[in-house]
Amino acid sequence: MNGSKINYVVVGAFVVAVLAGLIVSLVWLKGWTSNTIAYIAIFRNVSGLTAGTNVLYEGFPVGQVTALNRLDREDTSALFGESETDGPVRFRVEFEVKSDWSLPANCEAHIVANGLLAASVISIIETEGATEDTPRELDGVRVIASQDSQTLWRKAETLVDTVAPLTAVLEEILRGSVKPTFDELKQLAVFMQGELPPIVDQIKTFTTTLGDTAEEVKKLTSTENRQYIEQMLGNMNVASSGLVSLTNKLDGLATSLDALVGSNRADVDRSIDSLRYVLDAIARDIDSINRNIEGTARNMNEFSRQIRQNPGLLLGGSTPPDAARHRDRTR
Question: What pTM, to 2 d.p., does this model score?
Fold first, then answer.
């Protein structure tokens, strides 16, 4: 009997110890084992947030959400004014931060999700200046400035809403232009099917010719021909040097002629005047000269005819009788 009581005591003590450890673990997991500072953030959308959601300060975990509640009319009026009491629904998110992480005045709370399947967290970041629109306290608790952050799904919905009109416009464009384009491509394919084989044959022929030309060029640039080419280039270099020298000499000659003409310009002018006078005189007497030349030519023609008939005239003989006249008399 005493043994069974002892067993019950041991079992009961074990159960109490397990429950105590469980309670301590839960308290530790909830972050109640250290001193914390309470804050409030106001959001219009708290998708993904629950009690226990992590609170990050510039990405470092500093606390967790303790409660989510709808912001009532009195608090809305106190925070945003009486005109906002009939506006969109706002939510009061209460969270606690470790006491050694006192948040600065220029911080702002955002709801973010670091991945498609990642849990939402409250990310607190520092801004350039302190926000003055939100009161500092509500029910004795400091209110952190907040910014409604779009979740990944909401951003996707916004993107879809933006792309949908563009898709409709693109669909209309495709309906009106794709079919004619495909028809043109079909016609082009038919045309290329008929024209491409000759082009391919020409390319093959060109490739073959190019290969033959490459072989000829290879032969032309052989070792022996390379020596000849180098010699020819050397000769051309020498010839170019000679041409340079000749050009310099011609320049000197031109300079000398220019100086000669410049120094004898008066004599050249007089020579040109004399030549002009002689040409004018010849032009005036050219008719008489032509007549005299023509008469001289007739005389020479007659003289040569007589010489042919009677070469003895050169030795002082007389003209032979005319045979034609003698025949006429005989008749």
Answer: 0.40
